[in-house]
Specification:
This protein is α/β, with parallel strands linked by helices. The chain contains 7 helices and 8 strands.
Length: about 240
Amino acid sequence: MADGGGAPKTALITGASHGIGLEAARQLARRGMTVVLTARDLGKAGAAARELDGDGSDVRPKALDVRDAASARSLAAELRGELGGLDVLVNNAAAYADWSETASAADLEAARAVFETNLFGAWRVTQAFLPMIRESAHGRIVNVASGAGSHGEPQFGLTTGGGAATYAISKAALNALTSKLAAELRDTGILVNSVDPGLTATAPGMEAMGARPIPDGAASVAWAATLTDGGPTGGFFRDGEPLPW
C-alpha cells in the first residue's frame, strides 16, 4: 500500500489474463508495483501471472468475476488482509457483441449482458474496492474505455456508423461513470480517468487493420495508473493526450 512519501505501490487489474490487461500488469510490475492480476478463472489468472515471473516482479493471481458483487466483496476483504490496502484499480474487463450489430436490431438481452461487464462490472468493482482506495495516499481508478464510445474518434467513434452499437454505447456509459466518480472524489486526491488504448492487436489479423502492438495500447493504462499527485481527473485520454467523448 502506498504511503505519503512515494507513488502508488499496489494495483488490481480486472480481466488481466491476456491482451491489454496482461500487458498493463507487466508494465506496472516492472515499475515495482505489487500487481493483483485477476480473471474469472483462477487457473487462467495463475497461468498469466507465471508469464510475468522473474525480475523480482510481485504479481498475485486472484479470481474475480466482475458480474458478481459477492466475488468483488470477497476479494476486497481478502486483499485487505493480504496487502493492507490498495492504491490503484484498473477496470479492464470487457465483453463484446457482434461488430455488425446495430441499435435498431440489437438483441437487448445480449446487450444487457455486455453492460453487466463493461459498465456495471466496473461500477460494482469500484464500489467494492473504493474504501481501500480512499485510505491510499495516491489513489487511482482507471477505466479502460474505447474510442468507439467517443464523439471525437474519427475512425471508430459514435458518429462514424451504426455498427458495434452495444459495445460503443457501453463504453460511452463507462466514460460517464468516470466523470461522475471524478466529480464525487475531486476533493479526496483520488484521480479517476478513462483511457482509450486505441485499436490494438489483441486478436489475429488485426495488424492488417492498422492495429498497434499491445504494449503501445497498454501504455495508456500504465500512464493513468501512475499519474503524479495533482494530475488530471475526470478525463478521457489516449497516449496521455485528452480526447473528447
